[in-house]
C-alpha cells in the first residue's frame, strides 16, 4: 500500500512541464496542458445529469436509452464521430424480494434474470443438493422442494436448471466465500433463485443435516421484457505518421446501472470518459483512439462481449490496448486490475508506472467483473482502473453527494495522459502469444465471478 495521497499532490505534480522516470517504456511520462483540460466540475455535472432515481439507467429501460442519447450528443459536441451498436436484450428489474425460513426473515439477493413469483410466493421444504451438478441430484426427490446449493464449479444458471429438472420449485445458492452473493444467471432462468451469504447458507445446511425439517418461503417481484441496449462508440482518428497502419487504443466505461441513482457505478466512469474524450479530440496522435460506452454491463457484460464478438480477427489484432473505468468516484485507494491475475499486459504495467510516479495509493489485483474482461478474453492487453472501496455499491445510497471531485480529477488526468502518450508512440506493443486465446473463435459466457 502506498502512502495516502495528498489532495493537492496531483495538481502540483502535473504543474511540472515534463516529468521523466526510469521506465522501460519507449516514451517517458510527459505532461503538458492537456492535463489541465480535464475539468472535474464538468465531470461532476455530467454525473448530475445521469444519476437520479427517476431516470435510472437500468438495462433495456428508457433511462438507459436516454443516457445513450446524452452520451452521443456530448461526443458530437466535442467533434467526435459517433456510431451506435444496437442489440436485443431482455430487460430486467427487481422490485424487491424476500426470504423467510421457518417464519423468520433471512437476507437474500435475487439473481439477475431470476423468474418472479406471485404475491404469495412459493413455499417448500429445503433440500441440500451439493454443488447443483447433475450427479448431486441422483437418487433425490426434490419435487415441490427448495434446493439449497453451494456456489462453485458450474454456473449459477446450470445449478438452477439442474434443480428445476429434479422438480425443485425454487433455489437458494449460498456463497463459498465470506459476504453476500449477488450474481446473474446470464439468461432468464427456470425457477426463482436467490443468493445467500456463506454464513447463512452454512447455517441452513447444518439444520438440514441435523435431520430437521426446514420450510422456506421465497418471494420475488421481477419485471422482464424484450427490449434493446446499445454501445455508443466514438472514434478519434490518428492525424500524424502512417495513419493507414495506426493501431487502436480503446477506452471504455459502462453507462447502464442497477435500479438506483448509480452515481458511482457507473455514471462516474461514463462522465470521466466523456471528459477524457473531449480533451483528446483535437490531439494530433499517431494511433487511433476509440471511446466506447457499453450498455448492458450489469446483466453480464453483454455490451462489451457483443462489441468484441462483432470484430474480425484482424480488427481484434488491431486493438493494442483497452483501458476500462468503472466506479471512479468513491474510495481512497486506486485499483489497477487485469481479468486474469497472470495476464501479460503492457498497458497495465504502464498504468502502474504512472500511478507510482504520481504516488497514488493503489492496489494491483484482478477481477472479471467489468467490461475489460471481454477484451482480455481474446488476448487484448487491458488495464481496469477504479477507486475503492465503495460502501454504497448497488444501493439506493449510490448518490452524487458521495462522489469525490478529487477522485474524478485524478482519474481523468491519469487516463488522459496515459492514453495520449501511448497514442503518440510510433509503434505500440502487440498482444503477446501467451495472452491470445484463438482470436475470432472465443465464445462469450458471463465472466466467472458473476456467473459461478
Automatic annotation (TrEMBL):
Organism: Marininema mesophilum
Top-level taxon of origin: Bacteria
GO MF annotation list: aminopeptidase activity; metalloexopeptidase activity
Signal peptide: 1-26
Lineage of the species this protein comes from: Bacteria, Bacillati, Bacillota, Bacilli, Bacillales
Any single biological process term in GO: proteolysis
Coiled-coil region: none
Keywords: Aminopeptidase, Hydrolase, Protease, Signal
Ranges for domain PA: 133-204
Pfam families for this protein: PA, Peptidase_M28
Record's protein name: Aminopeptidase YwaD
Domain Peptidase M28 intervals: 231-416
Amino acid at each position: 500500500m502506498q502512502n495516502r495521497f495528498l489532495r493537492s499532490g496531483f495538481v502540483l505534480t502535473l504543474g511540472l512541464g515534463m516529468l521523466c522516470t526510469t521506465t522501460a517504456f519507449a516514451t517517458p511520462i510527459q505532461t503538458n496542458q492537456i492535463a489541465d483540460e480535464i475539468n472535474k466540475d464538468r465531470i461532476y455535472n455530467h454525473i448530475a445529469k445521469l444519476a437520479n432515481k427517476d431516470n435510472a439507467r437500468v438495462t433495456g429501460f428508457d433511462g438507459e436509452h436516454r443516457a445513450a442519447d446524452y452520451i452521443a450528443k456530448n461526443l458530437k459536441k466535442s467533434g467526435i464521430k459517433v456510431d451506435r451498436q444496437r442489440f436485443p436484450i431482455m430487460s430486467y428489474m427487481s422490485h424487491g424480494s424476500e426470504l423467510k425460513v421457518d417464519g423468520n426473515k433471512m437476507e437474500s439477493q435475487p439473481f439477475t434474470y431470476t423468474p418472479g413469483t406471485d404475491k404469495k410466493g412459493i413455499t417448500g421444504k429445503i433440500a441440500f443438493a451439493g454443488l447443483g451438478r447433475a450427479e448431486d441430484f441422483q437418487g433425490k426427490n426434490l419435487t415441490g422442494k427448495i434446493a439449497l446449493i453451494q456456489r462453485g464449479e458450474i454456473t449459477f444458471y446450470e445449478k438452477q436448471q439442474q434443480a428445476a429438472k429434479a422438480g425443485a420449485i425454487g433455489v437458494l445458492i449460498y456463497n463459498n466465500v465470506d459476504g453476500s452473493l449477488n450474481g446473474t444467471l446470464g439468461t432468464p432462468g427456470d425457477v426463482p433463485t436467490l443468493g445467500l451469504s456463506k454464513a447463512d447458507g452454512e447455517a441452513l445446511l447444518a439444520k438440514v443435516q441435523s435431520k430437521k425439517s426446514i420450510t422456506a418461503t421465497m418471494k420475488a417481484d421481477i419485471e422482464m421484457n424484450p427490449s434493446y441496449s446499445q454501445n455508443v462508440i466514438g472514434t478519434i482518428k490518428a492525424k500524424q505518421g502512417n495513419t493507414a497502419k495506426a493501431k487502436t487504443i480503446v477506452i471504455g466505461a459502462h453507462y447502464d446501472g442497477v435500479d438506483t441513482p448509480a452515481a458511482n457505478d457507473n455514471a462516474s466512469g461514463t462522465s470521466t470518459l466523456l471528459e477524457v474524450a473531449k480533451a483528446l479530440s483535437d490531439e494530433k496522435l499517431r494511433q487511433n483512439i476509440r471511446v466506447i460506452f457499453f450498455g448492458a454491463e450489469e446483466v453480464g457484460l453483454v455490451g462489451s462481449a457483443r462489441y468484441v464478438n462483432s470484430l474480425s480477427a484482424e480488427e481484434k489484432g488491431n486493438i493494442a490496448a483497452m483501458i476500462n473505468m468503472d466506479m471512479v468516484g468513491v474510495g481512497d485507494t486506486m485499483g489497477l486490475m487485469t481479468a486474469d491475475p497472470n495476464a501479460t499486459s503492457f498497458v497495465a504495467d504502464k498504468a502502474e508506472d504512472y500511478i507510482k510516479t504520481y504516488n497514488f495509493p493503489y492496489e494491483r489485483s484482478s477481477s472479471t467483473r467489468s467490461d475489460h474482461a471481454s477484451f482480455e478474453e481474446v488476448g487484448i492487453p487491458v488495464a481496469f482502473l477504479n477507486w475503492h472501496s465503495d460502501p454504497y455499491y448497488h444501493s439506493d445510497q449510490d448518490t452524487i453527494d458521495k462522489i469525490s471531485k478529487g477522485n474524478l480529477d485524478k482519474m481523468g488526468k491519469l487516463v488522459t495522459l496515459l492514453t495520449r502518450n501511448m497514442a503518440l508512440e510510433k509503434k505500440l506493443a502487440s498482444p503477446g502469444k501467451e495472452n491470445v486465446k484463438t482470436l475470432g473463435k472465443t465464445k462469450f459466457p458471463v465472466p466467472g465471478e458473476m456467473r459461478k
